[in-house]
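Predict structure. Input: Chemotaxis protein CheY, 127 residues.
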Amino acid sequence: MEFVRPLEPILIIDDSVEAREYLGNILEELGFEEVSGSEDFESAKHLLETNPPNLIFLDIELPNTNGTGILEYLNDHYPKSHVIMCSGHNSLECVQNTWECGAKDFIEKPFNAKKVDTVLKRLELIT
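Output follows.
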């Protein structure tokens, strides 16, 4: 899939190294080259400041923090970045809450190439 608008650089914020690596591999298979990852929001701040991402995959359940609180911070400080929330809990309430907080989309874990591609295609349509 070739995207019309650049979605890179892409940042993955997830405390699970396996989830970060797996999603990174999927994105690389889809043709993305500028993909970085961070285990928590504190370590992501440096990446945000030095190379602000156009797209952020953000885990809702990070240790010692709340993903929706981070989403609000990102929307305030990086309004041009598109945030896709990620969680292993696909409840309607969880999805609605992320949209109400300003996420562009939601993707359920575990990741797979079809889910990621579908979400990116939807994002491309609204940007």
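The domain at 29-126 is CATH 3.40.50.2300 (Rossmann fold).
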